[in-house]
From TrEMBL:
Pathway: Cell wall biogenesis; cell wall polysaccharide biosynthesis
Domain Arabinofuranosyltransferase AftA N-terminal: 64-492
Low complexity bias locations: 15-32
Main location: membrane
Originating species: Corynebacterium heidelbergense
Membrane topology summary: Multi-pass membrane protein
Keyword Protease: no
Pfam families per the UniProt record, alphabetical: AftA_C (PF12249), AftA_N (PF12250)
Gene Ontology biological process terms from the UniProt entry: capsule polysaccharide biosynthetic process; cell wall macromolecule biosynthetic process
Name of protein: Galactan 5-O-arabinofuranosyltransferase
């Protein structure tokens, strides 16, 4: 980055109240000021250094907590208020889309106006109120673009379809019993990072909601809180509240448009550009930056490990670069300290699983990487899109090329280089039967480029035309330039943000067409087989006495998502805990379909438990028919087995296997509920 020329306190254009010294922690991402012999503009605050808003580390941490807490409370209040309305469903009316657009216009318009007031006329009496409002702007965008379109449904994006079934199941498990337990298998530590689900389970307990019902508000709350916390983080990095708001607002819009359906991954991705900048500063001696990097890596490892691993690789590259440039091993020592400290935090969630993996039998550990969709065959190039995001990221790319050897821009260049290397490596890894899930990097790449685009606009505003033509550009033009840039950025963000509900339309539609845990659909059409779940739960509860600890063999993924029973088998291999030995269980289940004798069926289940340590099914819920509570000879109970068929796409094949009904003629308490046969094993339950 171009550094300001040193000036004495009395030099025209100097600002004794500007940012602190350019240390590793406080070096602004945008230069504090620039002159070429001409006096700097002094119209209002527009000509003063943008780093006037710099705050110390303690203040930054306090602002992060206050901003995140306030955003969470306000978002929760908005969710509650919207739930009390009687809005039509998004998939059958344009009313909610119109309300979403209008609210988005108000939020972004208010943000642009507040930024201009902050730059031109910052009244002391309203300073704190204005700061608070700017901190909460990103949270407002979450409400207008997600909460309003989802107002008439209890479900979140994707409903209970696709991957939301296992995510909802996990949150239901944590709501029933806080801990690091696996979402499906009994007595197994969690394989999937659980911090978001653990805290979500605590949120559900505190609010008295069922796990599935807490999913949507918890997703909205965490997205809003994280988005608002970005503002003080970027304020610390850039020294400018206005730039910080712009980066946070753009980052929020990009995240909501690309990957809002996976909230725990989204909140990690939103922080990655800032984490990359902090990593560079940490490797060059910034103590506050080192602390921030450690916390980010440690917590993100318990949220979404893919992004943690990528950030760690970027940090390693930055440490090596700093060590080579300074011809010192200090960056390597700081890297080691960051690694040890962050892994200590990560071990809170990962420790039980890794210990069990080292001491217990398990299946393949790489099934989660067996996924290569069409998006994974392309290199993300958002800067070639004919959208507002495309224009902003193109500007960011140009700026990074021009500033690639200076300051924080260099960190973003290294970060993007590592991201693109990961994407290409993921494609090559297909040759050895796996991937690195490179398609997931579309979001971090877009976020880094978008952040660079905002920093580029700020850089142009500070050092652009006036630096090139100091005798031509009048000081009065500074205010006009700022207003124009604020308006253009606001309109671009507005244009992009208003398309978020449309970009997410298919996912929003599923939230309305899927049935929730109370068998209600957001579009008010009749529910599917979910309408029988409450009766199934009653039948099971009366006989099993408890949900937690009771193991059910069923292919009804939504049932296990809504009720906290343990599953004998996970939904698919890709999200199954390796400790559960998914494929071996599939083989065992399929072998039971050859059995007709009831005692042999019970013996086979008990033998599987004795040989493998798998708790045998306490009940089964399968599709089939009974006659007056008795099995019908030569009939079948059907069960869907999920096979991992990677490298094919789709990568999962569901095939039907059929159990002989005679195998359940005795030893089971049978019931017919809708299309389902519910069989509870007769045991002495005390």
């Amino acid at each position: 980055m171009i550094r300001p020329r040193p000036r004495s306190a009395g030099t025209p254009g100097s600002n004794p109240t500007a940012a602190p010294a350019d240390t590793a922690d406080n070096a602004p991402a945008i230069p504090a000021s620039h002159t070429t012999g001409a006096q700097a503009p002094a119209i209002g605050n527009l000509g003063k250094p943008f780093t006037k808003d710099a705050v110390d580390l303690r203040t930054t941490l306090a602002h992060m907590l206050l901003a995140g807490g306030a955003a969470a409370v306000i978002t929760l209040a908005c969710w509650f208020a919207l739930g009390a309305t009687n809005l039509p469903s998004f998939n059958s009316s344009f009313v909610t889309k119109a309300l979403s657009t209008a609210a988005t216009v108000i939020v972004i318009g208010a943000a642009a106006g507040a930024c201009l007031v902050w730059l031109t006329n910052r009244p002391a009496k309203r300073r704190y109120l204005l700061t608070a409002a700017l901190y909460l702007v990103p949270a407002g965008l979450v409400v207008t673009t997600l909460a309003i379109p989802l107002a008439a449904t209890s479900l979140y994006l994707d409903g209970i379809s696709v991957d939301q079934a296992f995510r909802t199941q996990y949150l239901t498990r944590m709501t029933d019993h806080l801990g690091w337990a696996d979402m499906a298998y009994l007595d197994q530590p969690s394989f999937y990072p659980g911090l978001w689900f653990f805290s979500g389970g605590l949120f559900a307990k505190l609010t008295g909601m069922a796990g599935w019902a807490a999913y949507k508000p918890w997703a909205l709350v965490t997205l809003s809180a994280t988005a608002s916390m970005l503002v003080p983080v970027w304020r610390r990095i850039t020294g400018s509240l206005v730039i910080a708001v712009a980066v946070a607002l753009v980052s929020t819009a990009v995240t909501l448009a690309i990957a809002a359906e996976e909230p725990y991954a989204a909140i990690v991705a939103m922080g990655m550009p800032a984490a990359v900048v902090l990593a560079r500063r940490a490797m060059r001696g910034g103590h506050g930056s080192l602390l921030g990097l450690i916390v980010f890596l440690g917590l993100s490892a318990n949220l979404y490990t893919l992004y943690t691993g990528l950030t760690a690789i970027i940090t390693i590259a930055l440490a090596i670069s700093a060590a080579a440039a300074g011809k010192t091993i200090r960056p390597i020592l700081r890297l080691g300290a960051a690694g040890i400290a962050s892994m200590t935090i990560a071990a809170i969630g990962w420790g039980p699983y890794l210990l069990a993996l080292a001491t217990r039998p398990h299946g393949p550990t790489g099934k989660a990487q067996h996924y290569l969709p069409d998006a994974g065959t392309f290199v993300p190039t958002p800067f070639f899109q004919a959208t507002a995001l495309g224009a902003l990221t193109l500007l960011g790319l140009i700026w990074l090329i021009m500033r690639s050897k200076r300051g924080d821009a260099r960190a973003l260049v290294v970060g993007l280089s590592c991201c693109y290397a990961w994407v290409v490596a993921s494609m090559i890894m297909a040759l050895v039967g796996t991937t690195l899930l490179g398609f997931r990097l579309d979001l971090p790449i877009s976020l880094m480029l978008a952040a660079a685009g905002v920093l580029a606009l700020a850089d142009i505003r500070i050092v652009g035309v006036r630096r090139l033509y100091p005798q031509t550009v009048k000081p009065e033009w500074s205010r006009i330039a700022t207003r124009i840039m604020a308006i253009v950025l606001a309109l671009g963000c507005l244009n992009y943000a208003c398309t978020i509900p449309i970009n997410q339309r298919d996912r929003i539609d599923l939230a309305y067409t899927d049935s929730d845990g109370e068998a209600h659909r957001g579009d008010r059409f009749p529910a599917d087989a979910t309408q029988y779940y409450a009766k199934i739960d009653t039948f099971l509860s009366q006989r099993l006495k408890t949900r937690a600890g009771s193991v059910i063999l069923t292919d009804e993924k939504s049932f296990l998502a809504y009720y906290p029973y343990h599953g004998y088998q996970a939904l698919t291999a890709h999200y199954a805990n390796p400790l559960g030995q998914f494929e071996k269980r599939n083989d065992e289940i399929e072998s039971w379909t050859d059995i007709k004798d009831p005692q042999k069926m019970l013996d086979a289940m008990d033998k599987a438990q004795a040989d493998n340590g798998w708790h045998s099914p306490d009940a089964i819920v399968l599709r089939g028919q009974l006659s007056k509570g008795k099995v019908i000879p030569k009939e079948r109970f059907s069960y869907l087995i999920a096979d991992d068929i990677y490298p094919n796409q789709p990568n999962v094949r569901f095939r039907t296997v059929n159990f002989h009904t005679e195998a359940f003629a005795s030893g089971w308490d049978l019931g017919q509920i809708g299309p389902f046969v519910v069989a509870v094993r007769e045991r002495d339950r005390g």
